[in-house]
Specification:
By secondary structure, this protein is of the alpha/beta class. The protein has a single domain (4-189), classed as Pyruvate-ferredoxin oxidoreductase, PFOR, domain III (Pyruvate-ferredoxin Oxidoreductase, domain 3, 3-Layer(aba) Sandwich), CATH 3.40.920. Helix content is 38%, strand content 23%. The chain has eight helices and six strands, in the order βαβββαβααβαααα. It has a six-stranded mixed beta sheet with strand order 2-3-1-4-5-6, with helices on both faces. It is globular and about 45 Å long.
Length: 192
């Protein structure tokens, strides 16, 4: 199998590192060679966080270059736009529509771009966008956005529901497992 590339992008504190850990674990359990690279940036201050997940028969490097991502999983819509150049021409985006103002917007030096999902669609990009924050709250915690996104991402893989659940159980503290199972199901079953 040729190497597949996933980029997970977000803002510090959104749970993207846990999402990449669960995804890496899931893919290892499927017998793939997996490389995960975490690039934190200014994550402690609400800055961009990016993680690369690469998997296949044999993976030599954890880094994904521009134009190589099969999937971009994004926790925030401006981050989706920021990393768009990394997507392959036939790649798939799975994104949360939540907007988190970056520092230039907060200080008034810039304005948040409007209607990014429509603009990305108009560029011919395959984008699966949904309000993951609302679904996470419905599951029981706004911190479950990462698991809602993984539930949505599961649509694009021929990996069993049981395998996804095993990876969740192995990486989420037991006291939060039921909440995360609900968040995963809400993302997976979302009709939008």
């Amino acid at each position: 199998m040729e190497t597949k590339n996933i980029i997970i992008v977000g803002v510090g504190g959104q749970g993207s590192l846990l999402a990449s850990k669960i995804l890496g674990d899931l893919l290892l359990r499927q017998g793939y060679d997996v490389k995960v690279s975490e690039v934190h940036g200014m994550s402690q201050r609400g800055g961009s966080v990016i993680t690369y997940v690469r998997f296949g028969d044999r993976v030599y490097s954890p880094v994904v270059d521009e134009g190589e991502a099969d999937y971009i999983v994004s926790f925030e819509i401006l981050e989706t736009a920021r990393w768009l150049s990394y997507l392959k021409p036939d790649g798939q985006i799975v994104t949360n529509t939540q907007q988190i103002d970056p520092m230039p917007v907060i200080t008034g030096a810039a304005t948040y771009p409007e209607d990014l999902v429509s603009k990305i669609k108009a560029a011919g990009v395959k984008i699966d966008a949904m309000d993951c924050l609302s679904l996470a709250r419905e599951a029981g915690s706004p911190k479950a956005v990462n698991i809602v996104l993984l539930g949505r991402l599961s649509h694009y893989f021929s990996i069993s529901e049981e395998a996804w659940q095993e990876a969740l159980a192995a990486n989420v503290p037991p006291k939060f497992l039921e909440l995360n199972k609900k968040a995963f199901a809400l993302g997976k079953d979302f009709q939008g």
